[in-house]
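ARCHIVE RECORD
Type: protein–small molecule complex
Small molecule: zinc ion
Source of inputs: curated submission
Record status: active
Notes field left blank by submitter.
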Amino acid sequence: MNVRIEPSILSADFVNLEAEVARIASADAVHVDVMDNHFVPNLTFGPQMVGRLQAVSAIPLDVHLMISDADRWAPGYAELGAFSVTFHAEAATDPVAVARRLREIGSRAGIAVKPGTDLTPYLDLLPEFDQILVMTVEPGFGGQSFMADMMPKVAAARAAIDAAGIDVWLQVDGGISLDTIGEAAEAGADTFVAGSAVYGADDVEVAIGDLRAAAGAHRH
Ligand code: DX5
Ligand code: ZN
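STRUCTURE (tokenized, with ligand):
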């Protein structure tokens, strides 16, 4: 299983994002948290900013939409050229239709679940997706504590992916650090978002390398 490390620019300096993305050249993707003050109680940026990031970033964009009405808004982010667009199951009326549209435009399609959301109804839909995101904090803010009680959900997703024999990436987001990444990897995650653990480090590239090694050592 490949380990992917995706730093979240939510913890970066918002007025220097081009430079902040350039600092993480060894990362597999840059995780871009789009929030609308409605689906979550925080506001970040929208398509204009994501379009500019897409234009200046040397690494792929992993867009995480924490916005209501994903059916309406998600395809626009794929149209900007994002490598991957993940929307929340709780915010979509027809997740399969959204995923098909994203793939048709040319992005990978991801589905995310909040900590309180049961994954079971979505496991049958996995072949329609390229990525599933199990939130390990309540979405909205960086720097929160990792919810270890989400590990059974990660393990259930891993079991379903393996049983189906499909190549769906299993992402975790929230509270990922050197202290927690091993546990998430052991549960079956292969794609790790880390905001404060990367951008809060003295040397971001060392932090990415250390996270990658720690996840690799605990690989499922
Ligand atoms: C939270 C965001 C995360 C956040 C993670 O709603 O989806 O991507 O940036 O930050 P850390 O790694 O600091 O928990
Ligand atoms: Zn995120």
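CURATOR ANNOTATION: Strands lie at 4-7, 30-35, 61-66, 84-88, 108-113, 131-135, 169-173, 191-194.
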